[in-house]
Design a protein that fits this description.
By secondary structure, this protein is α/β, with parallel strands linked by helices. It has one domain: Metal-dependent hydrolases (TIM Barrel, Alpha-Beta Barrel), CATH 3.20.20.140. It has helices spanning about 5-35, 80-90, 105-115, 140-155, 185-190, 220-225, 235-250, 260-265, 270-275, 290, 295-305, 320-330, 360-370; strands spanning about 55, 65-70, 95-100, 125, 160, 195-200, 255-260, 280-285, 310, 390-394. It starts with a helix and ends with a strand.
Length: about 400
């Protein structure tokens, strides 16, 4: 082989190596540029913290889930579906679940038959109000009578969705406020039959602010733009809450369970003032441990002070892992853990446990619910069969 040929081969080899190196460098540069263009919705950071993780399979004391949506009607609530609910409840130590999807008339009767009557003590079904025809002069009396019939049929309470005060409108476009006098006969019927009202008023604070770079719930609102209630089309969040509170004050004989920590978990000091002012107001924790768990010191103090007014609830179709995240929050001092399995990812923050004492846990898990919920004439859900504790720390 001549020197010229040898040098040529060496040169070609060097050129290939150099080209490969340049290609790899370009690929690496492209990867770097891609990661810098990562969309916020695709960002899933993994914590580098090494902290204690406690698996709590069942609650220390049996639990009543005071806020859930199981569906309504015979077509939906098949025996197989109901059995799936029961299997998950049994695995997670849930004694009773409140179903807020009872509807009215035939749908309610079918729901009661599939749940409350087929499995006494395991399910408590709430009824709803029909807003159709709210402009009619006799709407209030008509719905109050329907509500009375629902209670006589076996409904254990009444549920109001956030649409009241937010989207329910009269024909002329006016919003029906939460404290509309047309609703007075409804509230008084609940007082007459000693049935509680579960009411969802407004929504998280961030849902009423602009969808901009300052919005802490941007990723959810970007995925669900219909959750945003900011703008002239909607009332102010504080006004909706004020309407609800005026209504609670006006009807002291009616018991109100204000869902989602009174829908103000971002401001527990104000929620505490409400509880001080309205003895007929209770709150539940459903779908809000993401808010409570990021302020564990404040939350723990709040639970201790208002331990007689807080109910356990999930707002999540029965699923053992969802229940267990709630137990971990309430019972342990675990730090910085992901709670998305309890409902869904709310914000990018992690949460901390509030390690409540046993006497408070009992109240939150079931004793407070037993004070205000209606279980039927035999009060079957008051049996004291607590599941065994099964917690393993790692």
């Amino acid at each position: 082989m001549t020197k010229r040929l040898l040098f040529g081969l060496v040169g070609c080899t060097a050129l290939v190596v150099n080209c490969n190196g340049l290609a790899r460098a370009e690929e690496k540069k492209a990867e770097t540029e891609d990661i810098r263009r990562l969309k916020l919705r695709d960002w899933e950071p993994r914590s580098m913290l090494k902290t204690k993780a406690t698996q709590v399979d069942t609650p220390k004391f049996y639990a009543i889930d005071s806020h859930n949506h199981l569906g309504g009607g015979a077509k939906l609530l098949t025996p197989e579906r109901v059995q799936r609910y029961l299997t998950e409840m049994d695995a997670a130590g849930i004694r009773t679940v409140v179903n807020l999807d009872g509807g009215w008339d035939e749908t309610l009767k079918e729901t009661l038959a599939a749940l409350d009557e087929a499995h006494p003590g395991r399910f408590l079904t709430f009824t709803l109000v029909n807003f159709e025809g709210i402009d009619d002069d006799d709407w209030s009396e008509r719905e109050a009578k329907r509500l009375e019939e629902s209670f006589k049929a076996g409904a254990k309470g009444l549920k109001f969705h956030k649409s009241l005060g937010l989207t329910v409108r009269y024909k002329d476009g006016r919003l029906m406020p939460v404290d509309d006098p047309k609703l007075d006969p409804i509230w008084e019927m609940c007082a007459k039959y000693k049935r509680p009202v579960t009411i969802h008023s407004s929504d998280p604070a961030a849902f009423f602010t602009p969808l901009d770079r300052f919005n802490e719930r941007w990723h959810e609102l970007n995925e669900h733009p219909n959750w945003l209630f900011y703008g002239e089309k909607y009332p102010e969040r504080d006004e909706i809450l004020a309407q609800r509170n005026r209504m609670i004050a006006k009807h002291p004989n009616t018991t109100y369970l204000c869902a989602h920590m009174g829908n103000n978990p971002e401001d527990l000091a104000t929620v505490g003032k409400w509880l001080d002012m309205y003895p007929n107001m209770y709150i539940d924790i459903d779908a809000r441990i993401s808010e409570l768990g990021r302020q564990p010191y404040t939350s723990r103090r709040f639970f201790l002070k208002y331990q007689d007014r807080i109910l356990y609830g999930t707002d999540t179709t029965p699923k053992r892992e969802a229940f267990r995240i709630n137990y971990r929050f309430l019972e342990t001092d675990d730090e910085y853990f992901d709670c998305r399995e309890s409902h869904h990812l709310q914000g990018f923050w992690m949460i901390y446990g509030v390690f409540l004492p046993d006497d408070v846990l009992k109240k939150v898990y079931h004793e407070n619910a037993q004070k205000i919920l209606y279980f039927g004439p035999d009060q079957e859900a008051k049996a004291d069969a607590a599941p065994k504790k099964n917690a393993i720390a790692s």
